[in-house]
Amino acid sequence: MPSVPDPAETPSPCIVTDSWHDSLVVIRCVGDLDMLTVGALDRQIDTAFTKKPTAMIIDLSAVDFLASVGMGLLVEAHDRCSDATQFIVVADGPATARPMRMIGLAEIFALHPTLEDAFDAARR
Q1: How high is the pLDDT of residue 41?
Q2: Could you tell me the CA-to-CA distances from 119 to 6, 52, 56, 80, 94 in Å, in that order?
Q3: How many domains does the chain have?
Q4: In which domain, by residue range, is 74 found?
């Protein structure tokens, strides 16, 4: 009988990348953002802060699952931003935007449905 893998030993897939556009950074997550994968996003955010961006866009448009630990990290990142750094999140749909709106995160930081909308907001 085949064994079932232990979820703690098989982390959810999550790929985190960044791209810089002058002093604006886009940090993109693909996959599941949960307690096993949130560290990758946390490290990418930490690295970006060392370069003092004028805007930080967290793109969750390709995230399939967003756990509360991921939402908590977004609040922490927002709180770390100085007045000189805009914090914007891209999220649309039931896996990301819906839970963030339900718990009031859209009242804490800017939430946009597309990366294009986020870029437009950052340029204002």
Answers
A1: 97
A2: 40, 17, 10, 20, 22
A3: 1
A4: 14-123
Looking at residue 86, what is its pLDDT? Answer: 96
Inform me whether the pLDDT recorded for 92 exceeds 90.
yes
Residue 49 lies in a domain: yes
Query: What is each CA distance from 70 to 11, 14, 22, 67, 87, in whole angstroms?
Result: 15, 12, 27, 5, 15
Read out DSSP for 21-67?
ETTEEEEEEEEEESTTTHHHHHHHHHHHHHT--SEEEEEEEEEEEE-
User: Domain containing 63 — which CATH number?
Assistant: 3.30.750.24
Grade residue 52 by pLDDT with cuts at 50, 70 and 90.
very high
* Residue 5 forms part of a structural domain: no
Range list of β-strands (E), 44-84: 55-66
**Tokens read off for 24:** 């604006």
Q: Indicate whether 118 pLDDT > 70.
A: yes
Q: Has residue 5 got a pLDDT over 80?
A: no
In whole angstroms, give the CA distance from residue 50 to residue 112: 25
pLDDT at position 2 is 58
